[in-house]
Amino acid sequence: MKKENIMIIGAGPCGSLLALRLAQLGYNITVYEKRPDLRNTDISAGKSINLALSDRGLKAMQMVGVTDKVKELCIPMNGRMIHPNQEENFLSPYSGLEEEYINSISRTDLNALLIDEAEKMPNVSIHFNQECLSVDLEKTQASFQDYQTKETYHKTADLIFGTDGAGSALRKSMMDSHEFLFSYSQDYLTHGYKELSIEPNAKGEFQLYKNALHIWPRKENMLIALPNLDGSFTVTLFLAYKTGEHNFNNLTTPEKVESYFKEFYPDAFALMPNLGKEFFENPTGTLGTVKCTPWQSYGKTLLMGDAAHAIVPFYGQGMNASFEDVVVFNEALKKHQGNWEDTFNRYEKMRKKDTDAIADLAIDNFHEMKAHTAAPIFQEKRKLETAFEENTPKEYASKYRLVTFQEEIGYAEAMAKGRAQDKAILQLIAENKINNKMSLQEKLNLVQEQTQKILTEKDLLAY
Amino acid sequence: MKKENIMIIGAGPCGSLLALRLAQLGYNITVYEKRPDLRNTDISAGKSINLALSDRGLKAMQMVGVTDKVKELCIPMNGRMIHPNQEENFLSPYSGLEEEYINSISRTDLNALLIDEAEKMPNVSIHFNQECLSVDLEKTQASFQDYQTKETYHKTADLIFGTDGAGSALRKSMMDSHEFLFSYSQDYLTHGYKELSIEPNAKGEFQLYKNALHIWPRKENMLIALPNLDGSFTVTLFLAYKTGEHNFNNLTTPEKVESYFKEFYPDAFALMPNLGKEFFENPTGTLGTVKCTPWQSYGKTLLMGDAAHAIVPFYGQGMNASFEDVVVFNEALKKHQGNWEDTFNRYEKMRKKDTDAIADLAIDNFHEMKAHTAAPIFQEKRKLETAFEENTPKEYASKYRLVTFQEEIGYAEAMAKGRAQDKAILQLIAENKINNKMSLQEKLNLVQEQTQKILTEKDLLAY
């Protein structure tokens, strides 16, 4: 069988994984990346530099045979360390099962590993500093500009994959094309983010508990921190642009920023001597969701990863979803009989419902995280779920566990079941149908019955 | 008080109404319209040339004092005349109240009337054949090209209103601006549309019942017809692009089109001798929904009408919603204290939830119209609702009546109540809680109780 020449635009985590996998399958791969080679350059400043790698992403690492190497880069996080203001911190485990945890990993290190592995293949070549300007969809021809020489030129291939992120040039070319109907959405949250840091202490030790994702929920805004291998934490502030008492619009001086942190995040503030400097040196990131369809054009080009479905970070699933794309595409490709249009359509049919679901779940979580401290009914729900998971982890999985640790089901199914469970518990609490005379098993039975009822009713009404 | 110079881009129904209203309020208005003056030109071929004007649109006509003139252009439609294939036609009234009907009106005639009225004002000037290319948002400066001379030039104003339709140049300039976060979506349906016609007979008479909106529902596809003052009907075919047995992709010859019509729409086909010709001469229209936010930039430019919220035609509310925009803007302007940014923000806050709702309702109706013939539970629901409306029209209003005839409530409220009612009735039917031993009033009480329960529960869960 003919092995096509495949061009991949973008050598981020998704593009480099895709290059590696398609090379393993024997295709000839040329990758063009806009940025310099991150293995030789510090390009991380102000970019989200560590991420949560969990089961869906790890399944993709397994597929390409790099699990052991990736594990060396991982710091397990067993739960959320919640930092209330004026109260004791507490650890809220991600799961009732010990083996279910997520991993903090450096985006740069992981990306570098995947680029290294891809470049080891004889049928992969990667060109850095080459920015894609646009793609002629019918001719499968991309135009590039060399960042250093400023020279522009065209390259053609049998197929072009766009893994060029949320600002994808391939996607823009699809949107500009009037030949086919391209449905598209970009939605920004009212909040932006700022990367900050907590350095290791003089002995090189972690200054916060190492094996957790730290969260300082403050209703309107939120701070989080993830551990790095060097003993530091990457800290991210999620802050409103202009609403509420404190926002990017009015925190305009180092003094104002410091006084805000001192009031709302005092324990973190004590560990952040460079706060004022970092806040104004690092760029403010936007939080956007991108959805679109179709992902392919003319059976010759295909969007994958953030280029097809950029999501907000509140479920820790952005990179995992992009990695899972490659696993699902690998499945679609197994049935490939030389017809790429069918393969691309099959892939989108298998995948889009799930990437739509994780996009929506991630936005839900943004609102949940902002609001949940204020809602007693939500706290009661979490208490019940935690009891189920600690005592009968195999009989009950919360929405979070379904999404994060049950990679054998898709995001869409996890969302449907997780939302029905949430609704069931909230209804039962609101109607006082759960009381303390009941055993935990009786409560669980009630929740499961009610969940099933909600799911059945939903099917019924979808006439 | 200073009366600003206001530029309006687009002299369609919304732009010409807005020009008239703002002129009545004393502002100085200059309108630029891309197309030639429709009062002197036939530009309607293949465009949707008649529309359903209902209570929300009429309220706007009342506001500017043109109701009597508009009424002369209207043909009342009291209900839907359903044309099943192989069965008797039947009239399904829009409401249990005689005074509740919608009106077929020529888009061109109505637009011409509004342009005439606007031009009568000493403080309005309208320039045709001037296409807006882009808008400099901060400078409030628009660039135009003259269609005839091809000359390009700039014009500035104190404020710029974009009423330039679904493909709005002002909206594109907002989208291209990276200064502020512009959330945007465009969604296409899998179907397109084609305008066709049924001419009057030799005596100049209507060949179908005059006072109805005719519908030929065929599950996947659908034909509709609205009457015109000259005795003709404008017929619109809604057809899938490529799915199902018959679609735009495979109806490639006049013979195929005729044979499709003969099989599926025989009574209409008998009245359409020019079908084959019209089908291939008229363009295929797309069916898209556009949503975006914010509608304003820098307190200087504002999107209104389709430019801000293009919707699909299945609720007959597109023009009504755009007209209602001007009514709501008029309200927002009453509180105007010289701060246009506040005024624009207040307007969007008052309005966006409602235009989002009518966009969603219109898509719901597309699916409902396609599928409802196949679903017995839906038929049973409609039968019950019709009984309520015929016997107790003041105690019950279906979703359709709430949306179409109750202009005192917004679309969002109509949607919430209408959907809860639909869900309540479907649940009651599915659970066999409605039976024939009950009086109609007992059934109505049950539906109202269940509706209230659903609405209360929804509030509860929105923690």
TrEMBL record, chains A, B:
Looking at the record, the residues that make up the FAD-binding domain are: 6-352
Q: What is its EC number?
A: 1.14.13.9
- Which GO terms fall under biological process for this protein? anthranilate metabolic process; kynurenine metabolic process; L-tryptophan catabolic process; NAD+ biosynthetic process; quinolinate biosynthetic process
Molecular functions per Gene Ontology: FAD binding; kynurenine 3-monooxygenase activity
Please list the cofactors this protein needs: FAD
> Which key words are in the record?
FAD, Flavoprotein, Monooxygenase, NADP, Oxidoreductase, Pyridine nucleotide biosynthesis
What this protein catalyses is:
L-kynurenine + NADPH + O2 + H(+) = 3-hydroxy-L-kynurenine + NADP(+) + H2O
Q: Say yes or no: keyword NADP present.
A: yes
Q: Pfam families, alphabetically?
A: FAD_binding_3
Pathway given for this chain reads:
Cofactor biosynthesis; NAD(+) biosynthesis; quinolinate from L-kynurenine: step 1/3
User: Does the keyword section mention Cytoplasm?
Assistant: no
Give the InterPro entries listed for this entry. Answer: FAD-bd, FAD/NAD-bd_sf, Kynurenine_monooxygenase
Recorded family membership = Belongs to the aromatic-ring hydroxylase family. KMO subfamily.
Described function = Catalyzes the hydroxylation of L-kynurenine (L-Kyn) to form 3-hydroxy-L-kynurenine (L-3OHKyn). Required for synthesis of quinolinic acid.
The name on file for this protein is Kynurenine 3-monooxygenase
The record lists the organism as: Mesonia hippocampi
